[in-house]
Amino acid sequence: MTMNADVPLYIGGSWRRTAETLPIINPATEEIIGTVAVAGPQDLEDALAAAADGFRSWSRTSPWKRSEIILKACALMRERSEDIARSITVENGKSLSEARLEVIRGCEFFEWDAGECVRLYGRVIPSEPGIRYTVVHEPIGPVAAFSPWNFPMSQPARKIAGAIASGCSVIMKASEETPSGVMHIAKAFEDAGLPAGVLNLVFGIPAQISEFLIPRHEIRMIAFTGSTAVGKHLTEIAARHMKPALMELGGHAPVIVCDDTDPVAAGILCASRKYRNSGQVCTSPTRFFVHESIYERFTQAFVEKAQSIKVGDGLDPATQMGPVANGRRIEALQALVDDGRARGARILCGGHRLERRGYFFAPTAIAELPDDARAMREEPFGPLALINPVRSIDEALEKANSLPFGLAAYGFTRSAANVDRIVTCLEAGNVSINTLEASRAETPFGGVKESGLGREGGSEGILHYMIVKNISHLIE
Asked: Are residues 285 and 160 in the same domain?
C-alpha cells in the first residue's frame, strides 16, 4: 500500500476505494500528492454495521488479549515509524524531526492504554450479610471519533487507543487533509490481527459524516478534537440523543513570566516551543504576560530566537519550522496581524507570508497589543506570539483568565509562593510550571470552560469509554 497516493476507507476489515475523492496537498509545495476516498451514505451504513458486529465480539475479548493485539500493532508502527513520519511531513508540513516525535507520541498512547486496560478494577461495597454490592466497568459501545489535521497520527491514536483498550469498537473520521497517518494505524492493527469491524476508518465532508453517525442508535459515544465552535455543534447533536461526548477543544494558552525568572533562558525556551508545528497546537504558548522589570530582556531573547528559526520544507533536515497547513491559515494569521498593527501594536518580527511557493508564514511576535485586539481574543493557531508587559502577578492572572478558554496555561517562577498562586488561580485543565509540556500519555489531558469536556490519557482517560454498572446480589 503506497502512502500519500490514494488513501482508501477501511470498513469491516477491508480497504475500500470510492468514486468520489478529495485531493491531498503538500503545504510546502502546494502540489497535489494524492487523493483520499470520500465516504457516501452506504459506506457509513456499512461502517455502522461493522462497528456493531465488531463490538459484540471485541467487548467479550479478555483485557489481556486486547492488550496483546494493541502492543503488537504498536510494535509494527514503531518499525514503520520513518515511513509514517515522512507521510505526515508531506501532508501536514511539519519538520521530519517533529513528525518522528509525533509517531513516538502516538505509540506511547497505545502502550499506556494497553497497560491500563488490564487494570480496570471494580470494587465491592460493604453491605449486610446475605447481600453483595459490586461495581464493574464495561465498554460503552461503538464510538464515533473525530480528529483534526494538526497531529495526523497522534490525535487519532489517542482516541483509538482509549476505545479499543476499553473493549469498544470505533468509527474513526480523521482529517481528509492529512489522512495517511491514521491509515498507517489501521494497517498496523490489520497486520496485528485486530478482528474485523473493531476499527473502521472513514473520510469525507466532516458535517455530513458527523450528522449521519452521531444520531444513529449504533453509536453510543462521541469523541472529538477540534475547534470550540464545531465541538459545541457536535455536543448539541449528541445531547439530543443522550450520548456522552468527550470534547478536546480550542485554547489560547497564557504564559505568566514572573520577575524572579531568568528572562533570557525563559525567552529562548518559549520561542523554541511556540513555533513547534508552526504554532498549530491547541496547547501552544501564545499570550505572554511578562513582568515589566524583565520584559525587555525576555522580549529580546524571544525575538532573537524566533528570527534564527530555519523555515522550509519539512523534508529538509535543516528545517526547524515548516509551512502552515493550508491557505486558510495564511489568511487568518494575516488578518490578526493587520488588526494588531491597526490598533497600535508593535510587530517585533515576521508578520507576513514568506515570498516563496508553499504556505509559509514567518515566525511572528507582536508586542503591546490592547486587550480587545482580535489576536488577544481569538486563538491564532499559527506561528504568532503575543507579548505584553504586566505590573504584577495579580494583573497577569486576571488577563490570563479573561477568555472563555482553559485548556493549557504556563508559569515561570522560582518562588514557591508564586507557584501556589499560579496553580491555584489559573483556570485551565493543564497547568505547567517552568516547562511547556502540557500532555503526556500517563497524565489526564483536557480543558475547562469552553475548551472541552472530559479527559484523555492517564488512568482517567480510558474510563470515558466505560459505563459503571452497579450489581446488587441477594444471596439465597
From this structure: no
Query: Do 223 and 289 share a domain, yes or no?
Result: no
Question: Considering the entire predicted model, what is its pTM?
Answer: 0.95
Determine whether 282 is an active site residue.
yes
* Same domain membership, residue 174 and residue 72: yes
Assign residue 402 the CATH number of its domain: 3.40.309.10
Q: What is the largest CA-CA distance in the chain?
A: 81
Let me know whether 424 and 275 are in one domain: yes
Q: Which of 255, 292, 267, 259 is nearest to 415 (CA)?
A: 259
Where in the sequence is the domain holding 422, given as residue range(s)? 253-441
Lay out the sheet containing 170-173: strands in order across: 14-16, 9-11, 199-202, 170-173, 143-146, 221-225, 245-248, 452-453
In sequence order, the 6+-apart residues with CB closer than 8 A to the CB of 448 are 406, 427, 428, 429
User: Of these residues, 111, 176, 248, 450, which one is catalytic?
Assistant: 248
Do residue 308 and residue 405 come from a single domain? yes
Rounded Cα distance between 285 and 409, Å, is 8
Number of domains in the chain: 2
Residue 446 lies in a domain: no
Q: Coil, helix or strand for 392?
A: coil
How remote is the C-alpha of 42 from its chain's centroid?
A: 29
Taking the chain (476 residues) in runs of 10, the rounded mean pLDDT of each run is: 72 97 97 97 98 98 98 98 97 97 98 96 94 97 97 97 98 97 98 98 96 98 96 97 96 98 98 97 97 98 98 97 96 98 97 96 97 96 98 98 97 97 97 95 96 95 96 94
Catalytic residue, from 176, 282, 349, 450: name it: 282
Do 173 and 114 share a structural domain? yes
Q: The CATH number of the domain where 80 resides is what?
A: 3.40.605.10
**Residue 1 located in a structural domain:** no
* Residue type present at position 148: P
CA distances from 194 to 67, 78, 162, 219 (A): 11, 17, 15, 20
| Catalytic residue list contains 270 | no
pLDDT at 476 (0 to 100)? 84
What residue ranges in 371-442 does DSSP mark as E strands? Answer: 384-390, 405-406, 408-412, 430-433
Instruction: Report pLDDT for 81.
Output: 97
156's CB contacts (< 8 A; 6+ apart) are: 145, 147, 172, 174, 181, 182, 185
Give the pairing of strands 384-390 and 253-257. unpaired
